[in-house]
Amino acid sequence: MSVDDRCFVIVGAGQAGAWVARTLRAEGFSGRIVMIGDEDHPPYERPPLSKSILSGGTSIAEAVLLARDQASLDQIDLVVGESVVAIDTRRRTVRCASERSVAYDTLFLTMGSRARILPSVGSTPSERVHYIRTIDDALRLKTAMGNCQSMAVVGGGWIGLEVAATARGQGADVTVLEAGPRLCARSVPQQVSEYLARLHQREGVDIRVSVSIESIEVRDDVVVVNSNAGTVRVDQLVIGIGIVPATDLAEAAGIKIADGIMVDDQCRTSDPHIYAAGDVTSHPCAQAGGYRRLESWANAQNQAIVAAKAALGQNVTYGDVPWAWSDQFDVNLQILGHPERGALVVARGDAQHGPCCWLVLGEAGETLGAVSANAPRELRVVRKAIGGSQTLDPAKWADSVCALADVSMISA
Ligand SMILES: Cc1cc2nc3c(=O)[nH]c(=O)nc-3n(C[C@H](O)[C@H](O)[C@H](O)COP(=O)(O)OP(=O)(O)OC[C@H]3O[C@@H](n4cnc5c(N)ncnc54)[C@H](O)[C@@H]3O)c2cc1C
């Protein structure tokens, strides 16, 4: 069978799914592509959901990645509002909730992840309680924020902080309740957590850490959150306590899982006819060792491109250095590599008053990553050093009088 006689089926019409489909067509594949997604929307990008869609700066149309018209022009059979409930790897078919069955030659799993549920409020959002994973979640929250004087955000991770910044920017009194001892502890070093806390406090956000929630009462006119950090009464409650990868479908089909769906560096799963990409995968990570699952826009896009090309028989591999960003108030943060694993953290810049970039080095002085706050040039220097044969001199890095070009590299 020639490649073009094959049928490629994509489960999950999100960012990775859209990039698989777009790449297949861009690379000249002319066979059948079916993409099945359980949301009622064509594929869209999620980063604006907690930022510019909430604040009104971006429309839904601007977030769409693969509009229905474009899908139709590209002869991509886009099925939305349909959930895949089973994969039969022997017959090579997927079964949908509507009982529709679709046969595949090659399957791509791009189901992403779901918001982690806070047991005390359950999974069903209401007029006063919100999760934020989908466009529908964001639109519900946006409407609620139109009349919101006060908000509590459970979870001081990236999404919780972005929502807090957006709500504060619209004038609401905002309290962030974080269970851990510091903000974004999973992904950045202590110095960056402290920076984030100061940034939010400067803007008037009430940041509380080491919070243990005792009860949440959702009343008609108010939400009351009781915790060891006191009682907070608010108009709106947002839960941002992380995500869980949507691996259940793959697991039930006998595909190997290790936190996410395990893939090799060509995005192949343990089943030779099935590839996976995006939030749902764990992939080999040379820098961190072992398998890593990433939750980022860049990973979803670039892994999907590799998955599509590999399925077409191209000799490509995925080994990108992790990169993600976040926008909070007037600060653009970028997180590169594995800054959470460092032995030494060195700041360049004045974190109190202006741009700053925290370089993170390992035990042997190797460059592990960096976090920049309005300092993209510094980040580019770190990117070159990660995994390279040169190292960065921490003393010169810390001396912001030295030009970047002079301080950046010393021989390894
Ligand atoms: C609010 C928010 C803000 C973010 N901001 C940033 C940011 O600033 N920077 C950054 O780097 N990253 C950010 N991210 C992360 C980034 O958006 C994700 O990593 C990316 O969307 C992952 O893409 P994906 O295709 O793997 O999953 P998704 O985009 O989640 O797509 C998966 C799709 O599959 C569907 N699906 C699941 N199961 C099934 C099934 N059984 N049948 C059919 N369909 C199914 C899902 O409903 C979903 O539509 C943000 C995420 C969120 C939620």
What's the end-to-end separation, in Å? Answer: 51 Å
The value of Rg in angstroms is 22 Å
Structural class: alpha/beta
Assembly type of the shown chains? single chain
Compact summary:
The chain is of the alpha/beta class and 412 residues long.
SSE layout and pairings?
Elements: E1 7-11, H1 15-26, E2 32-36, H2 52-55, H3 60-63, H4 68-73, E3 76-79, E4 84-88, E5 93-96, E6 101-103, E7 106-109, E8 113-115, E9 129-130, H5 135-145, E10 150-154, H6 158-169, E11 173-177, H7 190-202, E12 206-208, E13 213-218, E14 223-227, E15 230-234, E16 236-239, E17 243-245, H8 248-252, E18 257-258, E19 260-262, E20 274-276, E21 281-284, E22 291-292, H9 297-311, E23 323-328, E24 331-337, E25 344-349, E26 356-361, E27 367-373, H10 376-385, H11 394-398, H12 404-407
Parallel strand pairs: 1-2, 1-7, 2-3, 7-20, 9-16, 10-11, 10-16, 11-12, 19-21
Antiparallel strand pairs: 4-5, 5-6, 8-17, 13-14, 14-15, 18-19, 21-22, 23-24, 24-27, 25-26, 26-27
The chain binds flavin-adenine dinucleotide (FAD).
Task: Describe this protein's structure.
The chain has 412 residues and is of the alpha/beta class. It folds into 3 domains: 3-114 and 243-311, FAD/NAD(P)-binding domain; 117-239, FAD/NAD(P)-binding domain (3-Layer(bba) Sandwich); 330-407, FAD/NAD-linked reductase, C-terminal dimerisation domain (Enolase-like, domain 1). It contains 12 helices and 27 strands. The protein has helices at 15-26, 52-55, 60-63, 68-73, 135-145, 158-169, 190-202, 248-252, 297-311, 376-385, 394-398, 404-407, and strands spanning 7-11, 32-36, 76-79, 84-88, 93-96, 101-103, 106-109, 113-115, 129-130, 150-154, 173-177, 206-208, 213-218, 223-227, 230-234, 236-239, 243-245, 257-258, 260-262, 274-276, 281-284, 291-292, 323-328, 331-337, 344-349, 356-361, 367-373. A 5-stranded parallel sheet has the order 3-2-1-7-20. Helix 6 (158-169) links the parallel strand 10 and strand 11 (173-177). The chain starts with 6 loop residues before the first strand and ends in a 5-residue tail after the last helix. The structure holds flavin-adenine dinucleotide. Flavin-adenine dinucleotide binds at residues 11-17, 36-39, 46-47, 49-50, 83-84, 110-113, 132-133, 159, 246, 249, 278-280, 295-298, 300, 324-326.
